[in-house]
Amino acid sequence: MIRAPARIAGLGLLALLLAAGALWLANRAYLDRYLRMAVAQFRGESQRADWYDPVDPVPGAPFVPLPVATTPAIAPAFLAAARAYAEETRSEGFLVWQGGALQHASYFGGHQPRDLLASKSMAKMVVGILIGRAVALGHIRSIDQPVADFITEWKGTDRDGPTIRHFLQNSSGISRFRYDDFAPWSLTMREYLSSHHEDILIHETRRDYEPGTEYDYSMITSDVLAIVIERATGRRYADFLGTELLKPIGAAGGTVYVNRPGGLAHAGCCLMLPAESFVRLGILLARDGVWESRRLLPEGWVAQTVTPSPANPHWGLHMWIGRPCVRRLRWFPERSQPVGVLHSECYLADDLFLFDGSGNQAMWIVPSRDLVVLRFGPPPTRRPGEPGEFDNSRLPNTVMRGMDALAAAAGPG
Predict the structure, then answer these.
(1) Alpha-helical regions (H) of 163-274
(2) Tens digits of residue pLDDT in 94-130
(3) CA–CA separation, 173 vs 310, rounded Å?
(4) CA distance 387 to 81
(5) Residue 243 gets which letter from DSSP?
(6) Cα-Cα-Cα-Cα dihedral sign, residues 108, 110, 113, 119
(7) Do 99 and 121 sit in the same domain of this protein?
């Protein structure tokens, strides 16, 4: 009477172990990627690309350094102060371009100009530009087209209706996101690390709120736009990015994460390019989408890009906007980011807008001053709210004060 239940229990445990083994085998690639990510984060190496594979090569132009200024446009003391702050905050690179040439370029910790920059969420700004390029080439009729025109699996579902504009504004209504949910079974992790994350995007997302009524900074949002680009153009994301955007501006290429060989690229992160390639993208935007007299983005696109979205005045079409002035700015809704990023003072230019990414990867663009400032580096040692945290307004404001000081010293005319 005792042995039979024990035998049944033993069989139950065996069945459970077999099921767990089958689950492991079926998801081995995912779980392996998850563990490698965890180890990279524990070691402080999450900025490096080599923990993740595979990647797609992103074509680009041959690496040609940007011209270096022969005449200073920034007072040397201010430029030295900005460089010192960049070094103090563990930057790996700090570049300042103004008026057609590099005013300054410093690399730290052995990094070199040709090295690939781990852009983190600065990649989100790139997919926004790329949508504009697809519009300019006629692949997309309008950003007010429903996304279901391209993801036809959504036709007739609760996700039929949100437009490309809604997605660019991070206000799609699709699946509120939690960046702080690191459980391996969470939507956050599976969308990031699954070898078939396009299936999750297409089939597992849902309508959570009315499009346009909330702001929801989301990897899902940007990765859906990668599907739109591929289906609209009939080309792989990396190829379209490199051939139609990077090459025309003379930017060197790099790599982008893909979920599997021949699979979908991640557009919400994980684009690796040399620092000067990002600076060239900043120059393109500072000059209204025109590169050396060739218009690459639709007329008025940059103005649309930096027009505040209804649900967040600091966010345009996949781009951060420097105004209105706030002391702390959250990238995410408060449920995922209780404390925002520090801005010790208002930006000194009303038209400043910026790329911004995790780990204080940032590029500030000021069209009125023909200015681009780039800072990149590893994750900060101090989190927002802690003493010594990174100040997101300090570098661009120091550079702009240096421009004003030099102009004042030169006097009228």
Answers:
(1) 164-168, 187-193, 197-199, 219-233, 237-241
(2) 999 999 999 999 999 999 999 998 899 999 999 999 9
(3) 13
(4) 20
(5) I
(6) negative
(7) no
Instruction: Tell me how crowded residue 339 is: count the other CB atoms within 10 A of its CB.
Output: 13
Domain of 215 in residue numbering reads as 49-65+114-276+292-321
Structure tokens at 42: 């524990």
Residue 66 burial (CB count, 10 A): 19
Q: Is the pLDDT of residue 9 over 60?
A: no
In this structure, are residues 356 and 373 in contact, taking their beta carbons and an 8 Å threshold? no
In the DSSP assignment, the letter for residue 242 is: I
Cis bond upstream, residue 378 (ω within 30)? no
Helix (H, G, I), strand (E, B) or coil at 31: helix
Residue type, 250: G
Alpha-carbon dihedral of residues 55, 57, 60, 62, nearest 10 degrees? 110
In the block, which residue shows the tokens 């949910």? 181
* CA 145 – CA 172 distance, rounded (Å): 13
DSSP 265: B
Using DSSP's 3-state secondary structure scheme, residue 157 falls into: coil
Any domain includes 259: yes
Cβ(206)–Cβ(160) below 8 Å: no
Distance CA 407, CA 413 (A): 9
Q: Are residues 107 and 124 in the same domain?
A: no
First to last CA, the chain: 104
Note whether 199 and 106 are same-domain residues. no
User: Does the pLDDT at position 155 exceed 90?
Assistant: yes
**CA triple 195-200-202, angle to 5 deg:** 125
Distance of CA 275 to the CA centre of its chain: 14
Collapsing DSSP to helix, strand or coil, 54 comes out as coil
For 198-223, the DSSP string reads: HHIIIII--B-S-TTS-----HHHHH
Which two structure tokens, joined as six digits, stand for 13? 């445990």
Residue 330 lies in a domain: no
Nearest to 36 by CA among 57, 24, 55, 51: 51
Percent of the chain whose pLDDT exceeds 70: 92
For residue 348, give both structure tokens.
Answer: 């000194």
Distance of CA 362 to the CA centre of its chain: 10
Report pTM: 0.92
- Dihedral, 158, 163, 164, 166 alpha carbons, nearest 10: -90
Q: Which two tokens stand for residue 316?
A: 């345009």
In a domain, 98, yes or no: yes
Both structure tokens of 110: 């052995």
